TrEMBL record:
Catalytic residue positions: 73
Species: Aliarcobacter trophiarum LMG 25534
E.C. number: 3.6.1.66
Protein name (database record): dITP/XTP pyrophosphatase
Pfam families linked: Ham1p_like (PF01725)
Binding site for substrate: 7-12, 74, 155-158, 178, 183-184
Entry cofactors: Mg(2+)
Amino acid sequence: MKIVLASANKGKIEEFKKLLPNIEVVAYSDILGKFDIDETGFTFKENAIIKASVVNEKLKQLGVKDFIVISDDSGISLPILQNEPGVFSARYAGVNASDKDNNKKLISKLDELNLENTPAFYTACITIIYNDLIYTVHGFMYGVAINKELGENGFGYDPLFIPNGFTKTLGELDFEVKQEFSHRSRALNLAKKVLDVIL
Ligand SMILES: O=P(O)(O)OP(=O)(O)OP(=O)(O)OC[C@H]1O[C@@H](n2cnc3c(O)ncnc32)[C@H](O)[C@@H]1O
Ligand SMILES: [Mg+2]
């Protein structure tokens, strides 16, 4: 049984592989080739279900057997910005924005408000599809977003985010620290319980 990850985000794929060391995890593009999935949902859950459903259907069309599809839709939300960027985190600075572009935009928003830091939280919704049945779980991570990038570790908004209880950003902290409490680890811990029951 393998897990097919309905993600094209290298940072996420790397994290899922580290978080599921005893299971074969492959990115959908390894089996289906590269293609974009339109995330037309307005919630993390809607988008996670869209991503997992598209990959599940294409795997079935290809006649692939014995697989579980897992997707992750995630993002950072700042209450002071009415929870922006939220589900638009990946394209905050535009459709083909890089992590750097997105971080630069978020920093400019804090600068406009003359804020060096402000509360922020990450959401991860993980959807599991197995034998066409859909299961979704959520995980959250709370902290503050700052108006500068610190550190090179992780991906995405990590260099701007200081988790509650820490003084360093996720860009400065090791993944081993992040995996203890990240939105993705928490959601995946719930997803593993679902897998324990359905497999
Ligand atoms: O949809 P897939 O193919 O999974 O890849 P994506 O990068 O588009 O993923 P999302 O649509 O879920 O958007 C997630 C955004 O939130 C950011 N993000 C999510 N989890 C993160 C984490 O653990 N650390 C830093 N940034 C994160 C990430 O950089 C993206 O900009
Ligand atoms: Mg995406």
